[in-house]
Amino acid sequence: MPLELVGAYREPGDVLVRGVNVWRGRSEAGLYRVTDGGAGFPVFAAVHPIPDVPAGAEIVAEVLDPAGAHHSFVLWFPDEGAVVVPFDPDEAVESFWHEDYVPVANRTALPKPVLALYYNVAKPLMPRALKRRLRRSMAHHALASPASLEWPADQSLDLLQRFLLRASCSPRTAGSWSSRGSGRNDIRGR
User: Fold this and answer.
1) pTM of the model
2) Could you list the residue range(s) of the whole structural domain that residue 50 is in?
3) Which residue, 23, 35, 56, 85, shows the most beta carbons closer than 10 Å to its own?
4) Which one has a higher pLDDT value, 2 or 20?
5) Domain assignment of residue 113, yes or no
């Protein structure tokens, strides 16, 4: 998320500024699900827990932990014209780019020393048919992981970026967040 869309990186209890206020999580990054009025998408980031809705705030979205239990909220404060996002948008977007949601153990079937030997010595000498068979095997191994995204086309990154764009828009769009597709402020224009 470009920095100009974020109002401020804040700490809980700080005075909110107009725009998007990011409360960074202090724990290890994990796989969470952001539910936005029935629709949802996964996010891999450290998420600051917000157990209850503060006075004067409205719920934009709920953040669920891997078990499906409540962990946090994305909040709208109409009087301040501020949105609170409980995770770092940069971290969430980059985790999709770098596939951080896939556990390290599932990224390769080979230990590091063997992997280096494979790429530098063995792979250049292998016939194409064997390379294809190994690639298929690795794809099946990666897709078998419960942390893998939907295949063959996952829209999680696109949904996250659209959600963050809506969060950074004019305060007048806050009312249309949960009415996906029904308002003139809907980003998809449907």
Assistant:
1) 0.65
2) 3-100+156-176
3) 85
4) 20
5) yes
